[in-house]
Each structure stands twice: as C-alpha cells, then as structure tokens.
Amino acid sequence: MSTVVLLAVTGLGLGALYFLVASGLSLIFGLMDVLNFAHGALLSIGAYGSWWAASGHLPGAGSSGAGFVLAVAFGTAVGTLAAVVLELALIRPLYQRPREQVLATVGVGLAVPALLSAIWGADARPFPGPHALSGTFGLLGARIPVNRLVLVGAALLVLAALRLFLGRTRHGLVVRAGVEDRAMVTALGIDVRRAFTLVFAIGGAAAALGGALGGLYYGSVDPGQGTSLLIFAFVVVVMGGMGSVAGAALAAAGVGLVQQFANYYTASGLGDLAVVVLLAALLLLRPSGLTGRLA
C-alpha cells in the first residue's frame, strides 16, 4: 500500500511538472496557432535563472525561505522576458509563414542549450533548494518528498489562473476573439498584437516556473533539461487536445502516473514506452484528444 501511495504522489508530482511546461505550449498553440519548439529553451532559461539566483549571485536571493521564493521569481521573470523577446523579434514577423516559424523556433531551441553549455558547462549543476523542501512527510505509511506537493500546488494554481484569464478577463476574451476573426477585432480598434504578446509571456512564465521547480524535482539543472521535458510536453498537449488547458492537466496527470508505475512494476525505462502506447491508443479512440477544445 505504501508503495502505491508513493508512486501515485510521485507520479502526480511529475505530471504537475509536465503540466507547467505543456500548459504554456497548449495556450500558445491553441490561441495563436504557433507550434513553439523553443518552449523548452524558455524552461531552461527559467531553470538556470533560478539556479543562478539561488546560488547567491542575486542580492536577497538564496536557497532558503524568502530568498528561495525570490530566486524562483527571478528565474520566472527572466523566462517571461525571454518569451516576450522571442515573440516580438522572431514569431511576430512570421505569423503568416508557418514553415519559417517552425524552423526559427527549432533553431532557438537548439541554440539556447548550446549557449548555456558554453557559459556554465554541459554537466548538471546541483540545485540549491531549501532544506525544508528536501525532507519527507508520512502519508498512509509512505514517506513522500515535500517538493512533490510543491509541484502539485504550483500546477493547480497555474491551471486556475489560466482558466480565469481565458474566461474572466478582458485580455483573455480579446485573444479568443482575435483568434476567431483577427480582422474584425482590429477594426474595432483593439490591438490584437499586444494580446498575443501577453499570451506568449504567460506561456513563457509557466515554462520558466516549471524549469525553476524542476530543479527541485531533479535536484539539479542541465542544459538539455528543457529539451527532454519538451518531448513529454508535446505528448501531453496532443493527448489533452490541441489548445485545451484543462485537457493538458488531465493528460499530464495520466502521463506522470503511467510513467512512474510502469517504471517500477516493469523494467526501468519502459515507462516512456508505456506513455507512447497510451498516446497511440488514445489517438485511435479519440483523435481530438481528451477534450479537443480550448478550456
């Protein structure tokens, strides 16, 4: 029983990490029709920004208490800024040219890890997380890492914030309307470009937050971390339904659980294969994904 509880909570923690990455990816694709292969680079930027700040390079930041919160906020802010720069400088001129858009984002996705490797080396760097989050607590006979709950809590907050943004705010409604009929919204005097930049910033912030908290989950950061997580993020987006944030949340939880249980009860590494099989089965039964709509 304790093993099942541990695997379940750990799987949900991993699923929460996948959701933080996939939510921004799903939001950007669903609202802007942009397949952003540089999304993993934004995660890596957020991870290294938080690691750099938590290592004591940023005044006031550190690896404990409020200093760690500041470090995570700094990494998230850096990733958000990088997303805005990416949208303004690279994505916006290519909105009507999807092929060049894909090639450009793939190039950024390859260049950023190479740049991080050139600056800090290709080896993984230990992530200086707070001592309070490195311990465990008891649940139904299992010892659960505290940082898994932090990831789940962060994912739930991001999910609630995104649904609130899309359904309850003026900017969210403008973006949704701009996707349906950009010319009409522009004719009404609304600058859709600003709303699209905001969406890209929110997606980048979610990815950067995932990178920062991913350092807690893995205990380290490395240049290729964003690329490896991006693969599972795409799986989550497809399974959840292209453009559905709620679907991405359900799919992320399912992928994390399947991966953890398959790795434990079968051979190590078969969890990835189990996820691929699950994806194929779902697409055969529901080609549009779990929800297939923006929500």
From TrEMBL:
Localisation per UniProt entry = Cell membrane
Question: What membrane topology does this protein have?
Answer: Multi-pass membrane protein
Note the superkingdom of the native organism: Bacteria
Q: Name one Pfam family in it.
A: BPD_transp_2
InterPro entries, alphabetized: ABC_transp_permease, BCAA_transport_permease
- Looking at the UniProt entry, the stretches that span the membrane are 6-27, 34-54, 66-90, 102-122, 142-166, 195-218, 230-252, 264-285
What keyword terms does UniProt attach to this protein?
Answer: Amino-acid transport, Cell membrane, Membrane, Transmembrane, Transmembrane helix, Transport
Instruction: State the similarity comment.
Output: Belongs to the binding-protein-dependent transport system permease family. LivHM subfamily.
PANTHER family in alphabetical order: ABC TRANSPORTER ATP-BINDING PROTEIN, BRANCHED-CHAIN AMINO ACID TRANSPORT SYSTEM PERMEASE PROTEIN LIVH
Q: What is this protein called?
A: Branched-chain amino acid ABC transporter permease
State the organism named in the record. Answer: Actinacidiphila acididurans
